[in-house]
Amino acid sequence: MRRLIGEIGPCSLRPNVRRSPFESLARAIAYQQLHGKAAESILKRFIALFPGKRFPRPEDLLAMKVPAIRNAGFSRPKILALRDLAAKTLDGTVPTNRMIRELADDAIVDRLIEVRGIGRWTVEMLLILQLGRPDVLPVDDFGVRNGFRIAYRRRSMPTPKHVSRYGERWRPYRTVASWYLWRAADREKQGMTVL
How many domains does the chain have? Predict the structure, then answer.
């Protein structure tokens, strides 16, 4: 890890603290299994359904007719996930910005995976990219595992369990380690070698 940090330089990870958990998770649902440009296009059409709003509130989403959301480009499973997210935000399962900051990482994971279409990986991305939690290692993430393979010169892809065990030495800064592993994977994609 020291070598990788030296090659890449300072960590530039900055969380996007302005989004609510509802908005972050709705955006995550939109991006699931889609190319970024396609998801962004669908999101723009979806947001346009709610004139004058930067992003719809949960009650706005629940009041919107399903065919309109479908016409924006969301599949039926994603519409069900979005509506469940909205309902679980209103019933308090999905905490507000203020509430989520008080919860431990595992408590956030346990609450948010109750939402249809939201798994552990999605919650870990929220913990890292929105909440800026310092000790998250998403071991099921392909980029993290591939970056580990590259940085530690492994022939085969490490298992999530192996990365998790090895990652214990990075506590309490496993988020930063994840960021560096992502950079290692990015560098390989760009044809740059990691020494």
Answer: 2
